[in-house]
Amino acid sequence: MSDTAILADGLGKRYKLGAQTAGYRTFRESVTDALAAPVRQLRRVFGARSAVPEKGDFWALRDLSFELKRGDVLGVIGRNGAGKSTLLKILARITMASTGYAEIRGRVGSLLEVGTGFHPELSGRENIFLNGAILGMGQGEILRKMDEIVAFAEIEKFLDTAVKHYSSGMYLRLAFAVAAHLEPEVLLMDEVLAVGDASFQKKCLGKMGEVASEGRTVLFVSHNMSAIRELCTTGIWVDNGRVAATGDVDTVVHNYLKTMTAGAFEFTNHDLGFTIQTVKLRNGLEEETCMFQPGDDLIVDIHYHATRDVESPYLMLIVEGIAGKCF
Amino acid sequence: MPEIATATSSPITAKALKITRIEPETRWAGFGLKEFWDYRELVYFFIWRDVKVRYKQTALGIAWAVLQPVLTMLIFSLFFGRLGKMPSDGIPYPVFAFTALVPWTFFGSGVTMSSSSLVTSANMIKKVYFPRLAIPIASICAGLVDLAVAFLVLLGLMGLYHLAPTARVLWLLPFIALALVTAIGVGLWLSALNVQYRDIRYVVPFLVQMWMFATPIAYSSSLVPAAWRPLYALNPLVGAVEGFRWALLGTNTAPGLMALASSFGAAVLLITGAAYFRRMERTFADVV
Prior knowledge:
The complex is a heterodimer.
Chain A: E1 4-16, H1 27-45, E2 57-69, E3 73-77, H2 84-91, E4 99-105, E5 108-111, H3 124-135, H4 139-153, H5 168-180, E6 186-189, H6 198-213, E7 217-221, H7 225-231, E8 234-239, E9 242-248, H8 249-259, E10 274-282, E11 299-306
Chain B: E1 3-7, E2 19-23, H1 33-38, H2 40-57, H3 63-83, H4 93-120, H5 122-127, H6 134-141, H7 143-160, H8 172-196, H9 200-213, H10 229-232, H11 236-249, H12 256-281, H13 284-287
Antiparallel strand pairs in B: 1-2
Helix pairs in contact in B: 2-6, 3-4, 3-7, 4-6, 4-7, 4-8, 4-9, 4-11, 6-8, 8-11, 8-12, 11-12
């Protein structure tokens, strides 16, 4: 038991549907509601059934349990809206669980985005202090890591310039650099890596790999399957707020990708008298799939419709990797 | 409703690891003062940020801290002092009004700033955990710098009228604390309400204005019948303002009973405000 880093048992998060999902309301609404309540009460007494049906609840997360040993790097995968971020927010204590129990052993750091709390009017140096403090670093710790952070972000010359004058690349580099130097025992991470230009993205990935290999316990949420496979040891696949599969990261990712159909491709058409209708990927066994092992054949079917004559169409296929590298 | 408790040691593990427990809330979780204390550095950084940004961003910078009470004092002196012939306990009216405006401006702008503080920090609240109390409290404490600047101006104004402070000036500290506690109490109420009900921001300026007239700034509390004064002083700003006048100008309104009533009022505001804030805090990230 003592080498357990995260234990989650039956975690659930319920959101109320209906008026409350809109978030805040106005004080005026509450007052008029309260004033109207006796009238509704009367109606109920006299048999007029309320026309508005109960909207019910929505469970973003339902009965989710898992255990993570110290030093494990867990990749959380799943479709958009499957509950991955909700899980992360519950463990990070940003939002409250509705059911269940969880326990985290060790100092927790959470990175749901880079640059949280950055202020445009403050200088790079000042923002390092502020952002570091928000992420849970002490002043001494920040001072000790200042040089390293600045070097990593490559902003030495602009350290005392207000960040509003930074280019978006510099801004992201600085934001990532602070986050990357957080050293908690348990790290909860959303898709924060791969910011900036290609070479910096590579640097980020390298740093993340370093962080993961230092014996830290990491819970990493991402859509990027190659990053997940590269960094994680175990995987958990969340679907509709429940655990769909858990175990070895390659197996979980494999099973998850198998359910994705080739129809999931997204593309944009420009009105050029030439529209792409479907894109399908097949392997050498003529199976439609999205997953290829090194050495596999890759067949790309593109169906298009031309509303006018197209003379010698020119087709270009670019395969891009996670750090922007082309194959 | 879920609740979170943090303990620092466990009998099972040899090395004392910090254990974070996450579970649905079943009971009152306390004010979370220990955790707030653990995060004191963050509170300090928030104050530092607010002060720095306020003076960096505005063209007038530090002049804001001075202009607002000074202009108000000039207008009050003209209309209430010169034209209205308002009694001012034998003190030159401009000094009489400005002494009250120093703690009042601190309170009024503190309440205004803190009431919107959570909503303006929505992005942070949704992305990272820290005791939420830090946000409104820091935004009020940042006003202490303005208070100090305005106080220097007050000393200058007293010098103009050949009034010198006595050793009684040390009594200012508890009266500043009284204004601070009141501002935090009201700020916690309004900031939490503003998350839930977004039209609170229209109520705040009106509330502050009403509160100003319920506080002896343009007039003296000696206008209030003696029997009613303790009741009147349940408004904590009455105690703070009259305390300032007594400590600096030596007006004969002894603050004893009134200060007591005001302290009681401030304590009620602080405790209820913190309790309401802690109760609503759990839903901030979902609602804001």
